[in-house]
Amino acid sequence: MGETLDQILQPGRCHTMKVDLRLYALVDPEHTGGHDIAALAAAVVKGGATLVQLRDKKGSTREMIARARAIHAALKGTGVPLLINDRVDVALAAGVEGVHIGWDDMAADDARRLLGKGAIIGLSINSAERARTAPIELLDYVCIGGVFATTSKDNPNPPQGVAGVCAFADIIRPRAPKGFPVGAIAGITAANAGEVIAGGLDGVAVITALSLKPDPEAAARELRGIVDRSLKVGAGAPA
Ligand SMILES: Cc1ncc(COP(=O)(O)OP(=O)(O)O)c(N)n1
Ligand SMILES: Cc1nc(C(=O)O)sc1CCOP(=O)(O)O
Ligand SMILES: [Mg+2]
User: Fold this and answer.
1) Whole-number pLDDT of residue 206
2) Does residue 123 carry a pLDDT above 50?
3) In the chain, which end has fewer C-beta atoms inside a 10 angstrom radius, N or C?
4) Which ligand number lies closest to the CA of residue 154?
């Protein structure tokens, strides 16, 4: 038996490391724009992505593990963590840095028990109720869904707009430790990322804005520049 949650969450033994959510690239075999998925992940990281997720909704378990291993190998030495969407077992098998879970996926306490205190665990939030009840103490970040319309997800959340997403972030922040990262996802592009960051989010998570570009590295460089400049403005530094 591994450690209990109480042991994992003992004061001074907290799992939380600072996750850099500024440019979170989701790579998805159904939305690669014809790029090899491992080469795509490496390219966006070269361009400035700070976190990568393998979102593989249709692959077999073996395919997912093989993709995860290939992407993890391509990111070796970059220091950028790889997370697996939905699947704690795939993350464990491939030896990656963590998982992203939604409210229909494995519960955060089960994921934390299985993955241990050193893993990164992120959670999707898409309502005020979820912002109020998310188990922040078990998490390394949250990502608020449905900011704009998206074609990359089946049954997408209704678009909340920047104001809606920021209202959820305002519920989460007082419940979370200082510096706890809160990002946003859905339909974010170079044209609207600045607005999202200016609203008070710590980063943007994207598929299309990087994967479907002919030059994903250049697209990542542009988007990361927008995020960094908007974060500086928010912090009161010169643009
Ligand atoms: C960073 C990030 N945010 C949100 C999601 C969506 O998670 P979920 O609602 O569980 O939907 P699926 O992606 O699993 O279809 C995500 N994957 N990543
Ligand atoms: C995986 C995912 N989750 C979402 C949510 O709203 O929770 S939107 C989404 C897909 C995001 O892709 P794109 O950047 O192409 O819009
Ligand atoms: Mg999910």
Assistant:
1) 98
2) yes
3) N
4) 1
pLDDT tens digits, residue range 144-160?
999 999 999 999 999 99
Res 13 pLDDT > 80 = no
Pocket test for ligand 1, best of 55, 126, 202 (most atoms within 8 A of CB): 55
The ipTM, to two decimals, is: 0.99
Residue 84 pLDDT exceeds 80: yes
Closest ligand (CA of 207): 2
Q: 181-201 burial, b for 16+ CB within 10 Å, e for fewer?
A: bbbbbbbbbbebbbbbbebeb
152 carries a ligand binding annotation = yes
For ligand 1, say whether the CB of 16 is within 6 Å of any of its atoms.
no
Residues assigned a catalytic role: 55, 124, 153
Q: Is 208 annotated as a binding residue?
A: yes
What's the CATH code of the domain at 86?
3.20.20.70
* Total tally of structural domains belonging to the chain: 1
Contact 52, 22 (CB under 8 A): no
d(CA 38, CA 27): 9
The CA–CA distances, whole Å, from 85 to 27, 197, 202 equal 10, 23, 20
115: in domain: yes
Q: What is the span of the domain harbouring residue 85?
A: 19-102+110-232
